[in-house]
Amino acid sequence: MNCEVCQLKELELEHFEVREVLRCVLHTIFFHRALGLVRPKDVDLELFDITYVQCGDLDLDKKIEEKIDQFIDRVEKHPNKKNQICLSFYEVKNKQGTWFPKKLERLYWEQWYINLNMVQQLKAHSSKSHHSKVVVDPGESAVEETSIRRAALEASLREVLFQIIEFVNEKKDHVPPIPNLDGISFPYEITIPGSSDSAFGMDMFKRMLQTGHPTMLS
Amino acid sequence: MMSSPSSSSSSSSSIKPRDKWFNLALRDCPGVRESTDFWRHSNLEPMVVDVILVKRPNGWGPLSNSPRTGLVRNMSSKDPFPSFWNSENDEFGFETKSDKIIERWVVQYESRKSGRDYSSGTKRSSGTSSHILYKRSILLLRSLYAMIRLLPAYKLFRDLNSSSQVLTYNLSHRVSSFVEPFTRQEESEMQRFEFTAVDTFCGRLCVSVLYRSSFSDLSSEPSTPITPQFIPDYVGSPLADRLKRFPSASPFVRRHSWSYDLYGASPPSEFPSPSPTYSDSRASISKPSSHRLPPSSLPRYLPETPQFKRENKNFDEFFPSSVFSPLTSPSPPAYLHGNQLPTALLRSESAPVSIPGFKVGGASSSNKRQILPPSPPYKGSRPSASRAERSSGLVQTSSIADKFTLGKHETGRYSGVKISSGSSPQKSFSRSSSRLSLEDDFDDSEFSGPFIVDDDDVTDAGSRPGSFDQKAHIHEPLEAGGFFQVRKLQDGAVGAHRLLKKAPPLRQDITNSIILSELPGVQNAASSSVASSGLVLPKTTADAFEELRGYRELKDLLLKQSSRSLT
Question: Less Cβ around it within 10 Å: N or C end of chain A?
């Protein structure tokens, strides 16, 4: 099975916008990938004039919030400009291995990369101080700048949402048949690739061990 | 700063078998069946759904004459719940309306006759199993669902649905089986999105949409918030605190069902951002979509109209009408005011009356929009009012922003009215003012709107999206804060009392007004609305006083009863 990868358009945003933007994007992807019975829920963004759809699944909500917390945590600790968060969907397959009699394997069939470019609020501050020297109303230009930037972000967020919908429309065949899903979604994981490279690897490794462990004993 | 996502939530009511078809649990949409009926007979024809923007002509202000007929006709409309999705937009009766198709959805099932086109279809279709077909359909529907919310028209739809805003346009739709071609220019203004067709055994299902990406002509028009704002501020003023003789108004509040809370909760949105768009021309640009007014709601609000009609040199004069309407009107719906008033009071009250309970209710997600960091113009130049309403109109209950800008609001509001009265002849002012109060009505009646529009079950309150939930929440705190309401209403009543003494002739008799409004032939040519026409009866202060006494007795009686039932 091929793994389709969708690199979403980069969003330039400030720190405090991360949560809302991630929510919107992740939920929108999930709405197209949680193909179990859902009761769609319209959600208005608070910072932007955008309405998106959630699946209305509490577990999913929770997981997404957790991941967003993690991500924000990480961004705070490692203030990089470019950040990525990856949502992968996979199937779990039993595989006969040579070393282990049985092994659970994850077959990734889709990966979404959400690309965020963090901008500091410094801009607004600097322009503020600069202008105050020149006896211009200090707040005004900063406010204006903020609103321009916000509008730009809103537009590109909208674009990203369109991108998701387009991708979903174009690529349908790699999506596994809808089983009687345990939960509403295909198995998924949300990772923060750049986080700490080793940790990501370790995570994978740990997971492999965990899934392999019980069978190794037998 | 950003907590749980706001807005609509669908309740987890029972899942219908239909929902399992495509794993999508949707609410019922009653109108759909009829309008798509033709498709059942022959699903080979395309189904074309046009979403039409019905724009009211610019002259449709209070100062123009033409819309009178439209307004009156709307009043008498039989449909108690006119919906935005009403396909017969002609009933609105605007002579010079301008329609514009802003979205065109085309659903077409292309039959594949016994394999004739089979090869021309995608290769993979040959191996289409029902599973795959099913999966593709689900995906199609999901993306369709998400897409609709991304298109520009959705914003209009939401703004229309939002409470307490009177907009200069409306949305309608038309379902037909043929494509009425666009002009080249129209087409150039539209964008196209084509959903991937779903191949089935014997054909393919194609869905596409043409949509207008901007409504430039709309954005320039400021929308009109509703304007019964004088009351709360006045009551909150120290003047009103002097005497507190009136007993509790709680019985009026208690009886409210959740839907009335909607009304109670919406007034805050009358305090939009202090953006200049509002302050100046509010009265004259008010174009109430009065066709949404259930006719029944008209009479009981009539008392407010004449208040407006008087020369409003003194804003205090407005005060009595609203305060008394809950007391005077014996009909339950008028209690709405009883609710509205306390809410407004609580909101506009300054520091001493902090109502924690209420704030909790009000601090639902919608508030965050206002409280959120850092700068006001989040949405560019978009007036924040619509945003606020969208999220249920509770915004101002506890919002910091509101506290800071209240003064500014007031001036804006007042000047708005003054401008309209000053710049227009008396007659037209009377019209515009009556319209203002009609907006008030509209606000009330508005709770019936979303039901239809959302195609929701009227009875299924729980499944109402966000705004309603939030409004329902507020109900409790309101009751909890009953003391304040009681006190405040007393104050208000006392203030009104005082005002009545020195008031010019009063035309506020509710019984009279109701009767009169039902009489044919009292239509006053000068007034454009039924409301204003029936009420031009001079009343002396003494009369009003007399009545006031009567109402007070009535209220005392009610209170006694209620306190008895409470104990």
Answer: C
Contact A110, A174 (CB under 8 A): yes
What whole-number distance in Å separates Cα of residue A203 and Cα of residue A191? 10
What is the tens place of the pLDDT at every residue in A106-118?
889 999 999 998 8
Chain B residue closest to A171 (CA)?
B196
User: Looking at per-residue confidence, does A208 or B358 come out higher?
Assistant: A208
Provide the ipTM: 0.80
Chain B, 163 to 222: residues with Cβ < 8 Å from chain A are 195-196
Q: Regarding the domain delimited by B17-56+97-219, which CATH topology (the fold level of the hierarchy) does it fall under? A: Cell Cycle, Spindle Assembly Checkpoint Protein; Chain A (3.30.900)
Q: What is the pLDDT of residue B189?
A: 80
Residue located via tokens 């086109």: B117
Instruction: Tell me the shortest Cα–Cα distance from A121 to chain B, in angstroms.
Output: 11
Most confident of B61-70, B145-154, B308-317: B145-154
**Span A4-217: which CATH code?**
3.30.900
* B372 chain-A contacts, CB cut-off 8 A: 46-47
Is the CB of residue A80 less than 8 Å from the CB of residue A55?
A: no
Nearest to A47 among B12, B195, B378 (CB): B378
**What's residue A157's pLDDT?**
93
Alpha-carbon distance of B333 to B337, in angstroms, equals: 8
B8 touches chain A (CB under 8 A): yes
- Does the CB of A152 have a partner CB in chain B at under 8 Å? no
pLDDT of residue A74 exceeding 80? yes
Closest partner residue to B375 (CB to CB) among A143, A172, A178 is A143
Given an 8 Å threshold on Cβ–Cβ distance, is B378 in contact with A170? no
Q: What is the pLDDT of residue B117?
A: 46
Q: Which residues contact B158 (CB under 8 A, 6 or more apart)?
A: A51, B390
* End-to-end Cα distance, chain A: 29
H, E, C per residue of chain A: CCCEEEECCCEEECHHHHHHHHHHHHHHHHHHHCCCCECCEEEECCCCCCEEEECCCHHHHHHHHHHHHHHHHHHHHCCCCEEEEEEEEEEEEEECCCCCCCEEEEEEEEEEEEEEEECCCHHHHHHHHHHHHCCCCHHHHHHHHHHHHHHHHHHHHHHHHHHHHHHHHHCCCCCCCCCCCCCCCCCEEEECCCCCHHHHHHHHHHHHHHHHHHHHHC
pLDDT at B487 over 90: no
Nearest-CA distance A193 → chain B (Å): 25
User: Left, alpha or beta for B331 (phi > 0: left; psi -120 to 50: alpha)?
Assistant: beta
For residue B497, give the nearest of B229, B244, B232, B237 by alpha carbon.
Answer: B244
| Model pLDDT, residue A66 | 92
Contacts of A145 in chain B (CB under 8 A): none
Residue-wise pLDDT for B386-397, tens only, equals: 443 444 333 343
Tell me, yes or no, if B127 comes closer than 8 A to chain A by beta carbon.
Answer: no
How many angstroms separate the most distant Cα atoms in chain A?
A: 78
Q: What is the pLDDT of residue A15?
A: 86
